[in-house]
Amino acid sequence: MEMRKTYICSLGFDATSIVRLIGEKGLTANDTIILVTTTHTHPRAETAIKSLKDFAEKLNPKSTIDVIRIPETSLEESLPVLVQRIRQEKSRGSNIIVDISGGPKNIAVALYLAAALAPADEVHLTSEVTGERVHLPLIPIHLLLTPRQLKVLSMLPATLTELSQKLQVSKPAVSRLMARMKEKGLVTMNKNRYEPTPWGRILLYTQHHPEAAKEDRPPIN
């Protein structure tokens, strides 16, 4: 039995690359197409969505097509949504095929990062010049964090003393740990308190680690 597929594609005004990808790889009754677009609606984008729905209906009427609308300007809002959906589809046994050829660049970048964080199985990008499809490697973003660093992120904001007490390690050891996290762009200092950077918050909210889950998590502002 063929493994079910989930296509997750960024979409702008032109659906050509998505149609070509799905046409080549096929669309079965168990497959799903997820179109990722901006929250700001545009008539041409809505036309592209309709054309893809019509295409899927003709190719296989039993397939599923969904639309996810995310803000262009907030990775902190969009990434958790995309990562959660990719993981949801993976839990259903899907082969996750991501295409970032269409749509605004912010949407495409968000989808690529989500594909790396989840992670997806394949990521494709079609050249605007040659029309050639490129298979992109996935950066192993999950390797950027150790379990302890992820746990520390879940404790922030906090002072050096507070972290030392919570982790039950010396202040010099905590200071060295925080210095490494600062080098990675995960934390910043504000009035003697360590705080997660936007990138640190994104990694915290999109990575599953049992130790980090035990701590109270700071809200995303």
UniProtKB/TrEMBL annotation:
Residues 150-188 form the HTH marR-type domain. Residues 5-118 form the Csa3 N-terminal domain. One of its GO terms (molecular function) is DNA-binding transcription factor activity. Signal peptide: none annotated. InterPro entries: Csa3 (IPR010163), Csa3_N (IPR054588), HTH_MarR-typ (IPR000835), WH-like_DNA-bd_sf (IPR036388), WH_DNA-bd_sf (IPR036390). It comes from the Archaea. It holds the Pfam family Csa3_N. This is CRISPR locus-related DNA-binding protein. It comes from Infirmifilum uzonense.
